[in-house]
Amino acid sequence: MKKFFPNYISHIIQLLDKYYEFTASKDSNKIAVIPILLERIENLRCEFASLRDLDDLTEPDQLSRNISNFQTLLMHLEELESFGLPIVTHYQQRFDGHLTSIMKQLCSEVGSPVDTPHVCAISTGTSGHGRDYYWYHGYFDTIFVPAAETFSMLNLPDLLHELGHHILKTYYHTFLDPFIEWIIEYKEKLDKVILLEDIHDPERIDECKQVFSRFWPESWRDELVCDLIAVYCVGKAYAWTNLKICQSSFPGNSIYFYTDSHPADAYRMDIIFAMLRYLEISEENIRKAWLEYATIFRHKKSFLYEHFFPLDLTKKIAQHVYEICNDIGLVPCTENLHKDNTLISKFNRAWGHFQEESKPNPKKKGEGS
Ligand SMILES: [Zn+2]
What we know:
The protein is mostly helical.
């Protein structure tokens, strides 16, 4: 270990030097996140170098701790190799460049108070399954999307949800602090329900505990806030995009199904409707389409669903996000919808055309059945 361990770290430092050199040689006018990437590479290099230069790196009593720290750094290296470097290696004007300029235009239309995130088209799925669809990587300030997104406008409203994650990085406390009180309030209500319903099953109790101690504070609130920012900025087009994603979900997934990272589709739709009401946008046709979809499979609400996803909370959250969006200068979609040349109005018109196209063509005389 005396030579192997420090030599292994030196080898990684040499790789990072190559990564730095390669990234620095690219055009930051085209890939605006290059300075961020260079900073991330440099920081990681420093961390590996500090580890290698420890006096007690291979001392028997420190070795396991030092190897653990090394393995943690390797995870950051993997993240850089999986997502940071591909931002540079993958870059093509036709895809990433085009999508980033769409993002730039959107940021300008919605009055985004933060820098435009880069868009990199390396995701693999167009149907909305999991991570490989639209997602935001906060460490590299980049939104990852599938390459086919340059060919259609129907999914692009989702860029506004990802922009929401980017905005949350700067306005984290402004948007999320009120949730602390709500989470306490609804956790107490859930605790009372557990007592009243006389629930003893340890698995069910554990599930209940996770809802307000982990799921809401760690991810659900962020996802819901980003949904609301998207609706505020792009309006009903986001609701249609969301319905499309729900329908593309894994076969058999209930609309009440949730994961630790994402709240139930049904609740996301409830909160989307709540924001549409604040914006005074008619929700009639999307609500009708959603209700039709929601009843097809006759999914049953999961255990204590109403207490995990309180309906009265949607109004509070929507009102709060509406006010903060206003305060930080985001432009509500209602101001862009009537301007023909905005992307916001184009996305909504695209969804309008989609509804028309989906109606069956009237048959011409003489056509068979
Ligand atoms: Zn999200």
